[in-house]
Write the structure tokens for this entry.
Amino acid sequence: MSITMRIIFIICYIVLAPFLGGFLEGLDRKISARMQGRVGPPVLQPFYDVQKLLNKQIIAVSRAQTFLLMTYMLLMIFTGAMFFAGSDILMCFFILATAATFLYFAAMITSSPYSTIGAQRELMQMMAYEPAVLLTCVGFYLSAKTFDVSAIAASPISHIVAMPGFFFAFVFIMTIKMRKSPFDTATSHHMHQELVKGLTTEMGARNLAIFQIAEWYENIFLIGVVALFIVNDNPWSYLAAVLVILAVYFVEILIDNTSARFRWDQMLKVTWLVTLLSAGVNLLILMLIS
């Protein structure tokens, strides 16, 4: 991939990702409402919510929280920019983990017990999904013989052929990363839970808007990783990737609306079991045939 193309992809991600992420969230709300027999808000409602938060009076529990959340968002943007520029996928996920650490500290510095417990559960979620994330990177390396995203995407065949177990494990942990039931233990899109809003309890006005925009950037990055399993040097594979992304996103919404919330220990057990049985077995097979 040429330098010019890398710059174009970076600019497109930085500019378009929050709009696409917000649109997908609005679509999520609309589909969820239909599943529950409601009309639901307009698709553009997430943008109205963020605009309202940005216009509110700034009241921060701690001044450091704004810095930590801004760093969280910037690292999230940097992660996606590196990925769509075709850089090292392993480095992308390392930066993603660093961003999650800043989110943890942004919740911990408040005096709210709800926010603190939510931050602790965020660490539990990281413990649950990180093994699957690292194994996915290893799987791409064994399949494509490189960690370079651009080289992986230019392979002659789709990597899902050799990595179905890794694909299943990654889609499974996306439920955690996208904060959907049954794994929305650290925070929830709904007010009626035991932690109110978990680690976002003390985030208000501009801080909550920063958190929301960062989540949109992260969701687009995660969708990009799903596409990486499908795309190859055939241009038609990009259409197939879009169809797979839509199917995966619908499945995530369906799971969110049909599942009760797990306890943190249940989340760890189930996620590690799925990672071991799907990605772990797939890894052994790839190591034997490579």
In short: The mean pLDDT is 88.
